[in-house]
Fold this sequence. Notes:
Helices cover 23% and strands 39% of the residues. The chain is α+β, with helices and mostly antiparallel strands. A 9-stranded antiparallel beta sheet has the order 4-3-2-1-9-8-7-6-5, with helices on both faces. The N and C termini lie far apart (102 Å).
Amino acid sequence: MKNKILIIFGLVVTLFCNYSCSREVDDVFDQSASDRTEQALTDYRKVLCESSNGWIVEYFANTTEAGCLFLMKFDTNGSVKIAGKNQWIGNKYTEAVSAFEMIADNGPVLSFNTYNEVLHIFSTPEDVPGTAGDQTGHGHEGDYEFVVMSADANGVILHGKKRKIEVIMRPLPADYEWEGYFKKVDEVQNQLFSDKLSYLYLSAGGEKYVVNGAIDHEISLYPFGGDAITQTSHAIFLLSERGIRFCTPYGGENDAFAVQNFKIAEDGSLVCTDEGQDARIYAEELPTLFTLKEMIWRLDASNMGGAIATAYQAASDACKTKYKYPIAYSQFSCTKDVYSLSFKVGSRTGLAYFKPEIVDGKVKFIFDGTSDANATKFISDVPALQTFIDCFNGLTFTLTSESAINPSTILLSNSNSANDNVSVIAQ
């Protein structure tokens, strides 16, 4: 009898627990899975269509090519206007209208289900123009269908259905005209990168890396002081109006850090915005950059001040009187390991040799009085050229630039007389 009572009591407890669990499940999932999916599709579609000026879309086709930007405007009638400007469409601003659909496929999926010449060039299985090898049947291997990870008025996160690469969508501010947005991105490109500068640096996690190729958004990196051949790694990024974003976090040789997103700082450098990451991308210190043997710095005759401007103009006028030609240009450079201040007059160029020294973060110019045959003749015929050289000889100059990442223009200012200055531009 005792055992029967225990059995009956156990059955009652089990039934009660099952009933309670059933009620709890019903309270949490008051809709079926299919109903929930349909609701998500409706909600996400609404989010996409309600951005008044469309979306900025940060897209990587794969993990070996630089990313690119699209602008997209979704309409409730099922159409989407997509705009882009990249090398694969001739670097010309291009718009195209096609269809989109929100579909259920192991979760909500945004599908661009009719051909769009701006987007689908990355997913069609055709040869990639301008690249070596045969990509027929592969192409860029980019996605045109994307799993929606999250979506609200502030932004949308997608994952490529095939590649699983994250795609970020941000609302395009109302004050941006579409083609004007891409012009702004071009301005940022010119602000950040120059093909005239040898390399940049990445500092992160207490480590320092040399960065090459940033202008193409496909960079190679190796540890500062390390071997550029055996220790080089690679990373790709896309550039937007805000800064840059790597396709995947970059961690260096030993994964000592993980950096991906960089914004433009007030000094022009790129500062990492990832949580817990202290990192930046910047250029060489100015005195070192100026004295690198591979650099050529042309004097900007329209941006000189004080005694330097006066002496240059006098020398140019005197050359015109003597040779019928003014100074075409003058520049600091290094030829066969010998630094010089050169002058081009007519068809001839003269070189006045000097030795630059870095002193307390400044550059001191020391001319020893030697020059090549052309410069010797120039100075003999036009003494005003020697006067111009003497504006630098034995003097120390402070170097400044408006950008910490792209100092392709540097202002040289006499440390004892700041009004005596000249801008030099990397060639």
